[in-house]
Amino acid sequence: MTDTAASDSVLGTKPRLVDLATGRTSSFISPEILTDLVRAGEFALTAVAGFAVFETYVNSTGFEERAPYLVVASLAGLAVIVAFAALRLYGVSAFTQPIRLLPRLWLGWTIVFAFLTAAAFFLKVGPEFSRVWLLTWYAAGGIALLAGRIVLAQAVSGWLDAGRLQRRAVIIGGGEPASALIRALESDRSNEIRICGIFDDRTPERLGTAAAGYPHLGTIDDLVEFGRKSRVDMLIVSLPMHAENRLLQVFRKLWVLPVDIRLSAHMSKLNFRPRAYSYIGSVPFIDIADRPIANWSFILKWLFDKTIALLALIALAPVMLAVAAAVRFDSRGPVLFRQKRFGFNNELIEVFKFRSMYVDQSDADAARLVTRGDPRVTRVGRFIRKTSLDELPQLFNVLTGQLSLVGPRPHALQAKAADRLYQDVVDGYYARHKVKPGLTGWAQINGWRGETDTAEKIQRRVEHDLYYIENWSVFLDLYILFMTPFALLKAENAY
To answer: In whole angstroms, what is the distance from residue 272 CA to residue 257 CA?
Structure first.
């Protein structure tokens, strides 16, 4: 790859391909989360401004007098969110233009105030509120909202320049359809897409010049590797909808990546109902796949993992110390065993386990399955493997962010079923790596743990892993954690 991506996009300079390939990019800020935080901030600004004016002007110490003002200030905060959303004041594009959108912002605030005043009149509660308070709050609240937007604009502009608010996308399929799609995206300043380049199985000679000045980065197979090594948020397929066989081939290869996949409907002659489309700016797309556990779900799972893992480490510390002592006195060698495994998006990670084998017979790549009565396993090792106590040190992997509490189990690099590598047995095996691996999972509590001496066993395990990914929720994680101890009691396949 070269540094030919030199032309400027609407949202800034295209990133160097070297940086994309090596992952040297700033961390991503989700526009959805940012918008929700702005909503919450403006609710707080509105309510706090109203209550602060009340405390300054009315200066009452009685709760009964304070309560109506607090309720009205809170209702105004909710009304601001609704009014600003209706006036399209939420979104990255709106956040960068506070001065241009000042009339619209003040209109929204005025509408909210007019609504509150009318409600007080018709409900005959107007005399209960100070008119000086209302007028002062109207001015103070409007100024606070505008000042907040100006500060926000500075921050958002900096994040845009650093590429932190832009979803990095690649186009699949070149030629004129891709060029037309790119021109449509770049003409709409409200989108947050940064295009990295084009992937197409045709050679550059057959493809012609790069679409709209973007480079041809390789084939579809190259894209899978590219998606493993760089931060790509979205794959945009510009192939025609009537090319069904070609689309199926492409999707079969790409669905293993943890990204959003969109099929362009920009040039399609087929017209679906408006709800069938999603939009990037004003350009229509059909959703093929969404990145699992994204935005607030990602944050919720992150908090869940860190909190429960820390509490579990504290609660299980005596057990872990006892296991460590038993391992140490049962056979010579270190207490912990480190093993390379595949993590999120096929990233290589190193997980910790209590050592369960003799040091001189350890199998770091798990090239040979552990079977019943395996002579490589120590006496203590048999017990801790059967009860999964050997996995407890992986709580540290959860705290460092390599693992999750619940998810597909991380498999060793050379793990096999029926003498074949897992990825050779199961089509689309790597799709299970679209989320972080876990200490326990849906497959484990449904009986698919332990030895995988047949192709069916790993096939069933992967099916359960994919079910978990597609149906994740915090309640599902809680259920799996609750059921894990009961599943460990049925340890027929764990040796």
So the answer is: 27
Give yes or no for residue 13 having a pLDDT over 60: no
CA distance 136 to 158: 34
Answer whether residue 5 shows pLDDT above 60: no
d(CA 445, CA 447): 6
Q: What is the per-residue pLDDT for 271? A: 63
With a CB cutoff of 8 Å and minimum separation 6, the contacts of 23 are: 229, 230, 231
CA pair distance 235, 195, nearest whole angstrom: 10
**Angle (CA) 313 319 324, round 5°:** 100
3-state SS, residue 341:
strand
State how far the Cα of 441 lies from the Cα of 313, in Å rounded to an integer.
19
Which pLDDT band holds residue 201 (cuts at 50, 70, 90)? confident
- Structure tokens given for 23: 């992952």
In this prediction, residue 1 has a pLDDT band, given cuts at 50, 70 and 90, of very low
Q: What is the DSSP code string of 202-265?
A: S-HHHH-SPGGG--EEE-HHHHHHHHHHS---EEEE-S-TT-HHHHHHHHHHHTTSSSEEEEE-
- 3 burial level (CB within 10 Å; 0-12, 13-18, 19+): exposed
Q: What is the number of other CB atoms lying within 10 angstroms of the CB of residue 388?
A: 19
What distance in Å separates the CA atoms of residue 446 and residue 101, rounded to the nearest whole number?
55
Residue the block writes with tokens 């907040």 = 148
Distance CA 351, CA 217 (A): 34
Instruction: Look at strands 438-440 and 404-406 and give their pairing.
Output: parallel
| C-alpha closest to that of 461 among 436, 440, 489, 482 | 440
Mean pLDDT within 213-229: 85
Cβ contact 169:236 at 8 Å = yes
The Cα–Cα gap between 278 and 286 comes to: 6
**DSSP label of 358:** -
- The pLDDT value recorded for residue 492 is 61
Q: Please check whether residue 433 is in contact with residue 256, taking contact to mean a CB–CB distance below 8 angstroms.
A: yes
User: How sure is the predictor about 206, in pLDDT bands with cuts at 50, 70 and 90?
Assistant: low
Rounded Cα gap, residues 26 and 231, in angstroms:
10
Decide if 217 contacts 197 (C-beta within 8 A).
yes
Residue 368, CA atoms < 13 Å, CB-side half-sphere: 10
For the chain, the average pLDDT equals 82
What's the rounded Cα separation, in Å, for the pair 268 and 273? 13
Strands 234-237 and 260-264: parallel
pTM of the model: 0.81
Ramachandran region, residue 386 (left: φ > 0; alpha: ψ -120 to 50; beta: rest): alpha
- List, for residues 70-111, the tens digit of each pLDDT value: 888 899 999 999 999 999 999 888 898 888 999 999 999 999
**pLDDT digits 0-9 by tens, 302-311:** 999 999 999 9
